[in-house]
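User: I want to check something. If I give you two sequences, will you return the structure for each one separately, not as a complex?

Assistant: Yes, each is folded on its own. Here is the first sequence with its structure:
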Amino acid sequence: MIEEIVKDYTAYLNLDLGSNLQTIQDVIDNMITRLEELTSVLHMIKTKNNDCNKSVTQDICSYRNEVTNLSKKIKVLDQVVSRLQRNVDILEKRVEKAETDFGLSQDNKLKSIFKPFLMKNKESQSSNDTLSVPFENLPIISVMDCFEST
């Protein structure tokens, strides 16, 4: 009986290490293969990234002068637009002043424009003479001159 128990326990404790180790070896080999693939993909990405960095750096250097000139032109254009806006504002103020001097109403400008010409009254003529505003020239500068200097 003891011999049978010993045989049963020896069969129970008898391990087939070869098959278990083979499974572990297969898993390790599979992981190594995947790591090698990942390493090669990362190497390709790194190589392409370096090539891309070199080409972008070369493009930036080659277009640097053009970008600098373009930025100068944009600044000049901004100055020209600001100057034109100031001139338009001045002209609008002068037109508004002329409208008030001639007594033009905002509602019916067409009739108001011809009103001084249609009135043959001396009062209207004398009032027009006193209301006349001396004309001042607005300095007009060529826009192209601004761009030729850049």
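And separately, the second sequence with its own structure:
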Amino acid sequence: MLERGSEDFFDDINYILTACSERGLSKLLAVRTIYQQAKDSQFTKTVLKDQPKALEDNRQELYHKLTEAEDEKQQLTERLKTTEEERQQLKDTLKTTEEERQQLTGRLKTMDEERQQFKDALKTTEEERQQFEDALRETDRDFRNTLNTAENKLKTLKDEKEELL
């Protein structure tokens, strides 16, 4: 109803504006401007009246989001701490494993050196065995030759003895 009254008022003012003289026109324009400002002021009051509630709602929503963000930050900080502890444990485990690998590599190298020494000793022993076998064969051959020679002499001596008897 107020709006309808306002429209009628504006229509009346527009009618009066056209009918008025130049002097009255300026007064009428001043009245119209004041009325428009009053009407704008009422609209502004309505908007401003609702604005604190909207601002409070917005503030509450932002506060809620901030709380959620802080909670998430705390969770992420705890996860980061846990991850860092796990990383440190894995780093320590890796260091221990590397030390063990170096020890095993050292033992393997030592065992390879010992194996090579045994291999060299075995080769030397095999060479000595071969030399002993060769010496044994030669001694056996010499012994057989000596034995054959002795048997032949013995046979010759027996034959000579029989001839003499």
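Because they were folded independently, the notes below concern the second chain alone. The radius of gyration is 63 Å. Residues 22-164 form the longest helix (143 residues).
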